[in-house]
Amino acid sequence: MVRHAGQGTVGILARAASAASAGGVSVRGSGLYLGDGYILTARHATTQRAGRHEGGTGNPARITVISNALEEAPAEMVGVHHFLDLALYRIARERIPPTLSAQRFAPAEAVPGELVFTVGYPLGWGPVVSYGRVGNPDTFLTTVESRLVQADLSVCSGNSGGGLFNARGDLVGIVHAVIHTDTTPPAATERRCGRFAFAVPGPLAQKIVTAMIRGAPWHFSTLGLRLASVNIDSRWRVAVADATGPARRAGLRAGDVLLSIDGHRIDSAGRLKNYLMEHTRPSQPVTLRILRDEREQTIRVVLGTVRDPVRARPQRPAPPNASTK
């Protein structure tokens, strides 16, 4: 199981000018082999600082990856998804290292307390395996638009883009961020480690990967609400601060307290956002139960579209778990 995960984990190479002249390489991030040549990683693990990339996205059209058997291979961009910090590349069939093993997404969500492990290239070394447990599978950071799975295990800069695996070796997340827990301030070029890892949920990442492979950008839905917190009978509730777009057309207005969406309780702005991102699509109707002037009402809203600045190239459709490479 762990060996299989290691055989499907690659390093994202970064060649500095001085290193390239001496024939050396450095690893800047981790990635996952999904089969049929596809490499999934974190978008920020491939972002270029200079302006030599194509298309102005900050992500290069081509990267080089290295397997745990030290085989290098170039990979061409398929697409990037800014909202979820994901990037998908593809190795040409004739260049796929024979030692790579395809990884698969877990059929179920990660749950609190679940045993997990990650394989990656922390601080440029690896592949390294780290074990831990899921903490909060429903948390947020300001660096990405979706919820994140928080796990308690040792990770460092360089783990980004690697997999968070469950006890069966299936992907439950893609490592997005690390909270540095050491106390000394790092130098400008120093990379640090910690015991708080945050990963994009596997089921959500799988949807984005499938869409990019098919050349069909995945758009999330929106209600068109700006939210605020209000205290009602010593309990904090989610209320409408401003309604635009779909919400305004449906009759929602400032001061409405949101109680549920399609029967699912709304007890935080995060839960509402989760539901919209993971269980709805643009143009889908949803039913909101609200409190207005101390009376409950139901309002039907047809969702709008949030457009992510995705850069994608159409590819031959193929399910991400299909190959046994």
Side-by-side strand order of the widest sheet: 1-2-3-6-5-4
For this structure, what is the CATH homologous superfamily of the largest domain?
A: Trypsin-like serine proteases
**Beta strand count:** 21
Low-confidence stretches: 16-22, 50-57, 314-325
The profile of the biggest β sheet is: 6 strands, antiparallel, barrel
Q: Can you write the helix and strand succession as a string?
A: HEHEEEEEEEEEEEHEEEHEEHEEEE
Mean pLDDT: 86
How would you portray this structure in words?
Helix content is 12%, strand content 41%. The protein has 325 residues and is mainly beta. The chain folds into 3 domains: 2-100, Thrombin, subunit H, CATH 2.40.10; 115-213, Thrombin, subunit H (Beta Barrel); 220-306, Roll (Pdz3 Domain), CATH 2.30.42. A 6-stranded antiparallel β-barrel has the order 1-2-3-6-5-4. Strand 5 (72-81) and strand 6 form a beta hairpin. The longest helix has 12 residues, at 202-213. It is elongated and about 65 Å long.
Please specify the SSE layout and strand pairing:
Layout: H1 2-7, E1 9-14, H2 17-21, E2 26-35, E3 38-42, E4 62-66, E5 72-81, E6 86-90, E7 115-120, E8 128-134, E9 149-156, E10 163-166, E11 171-179, E12 193-201, H3 202-213, E13 220-222, E14 225-232, E15 235-243, H4 245-250, E16 257-261, E17 264-265, H5 269-279, E18 285-292, E19 295-302, E20 304-306, E21 311-312
Distinctive features:
elongated; 5 helices; six-stranded antiparallel β-barrel; disordered C terminus; 325 residues; single chain; Pdz3 Domain; Thrombin, subunit H
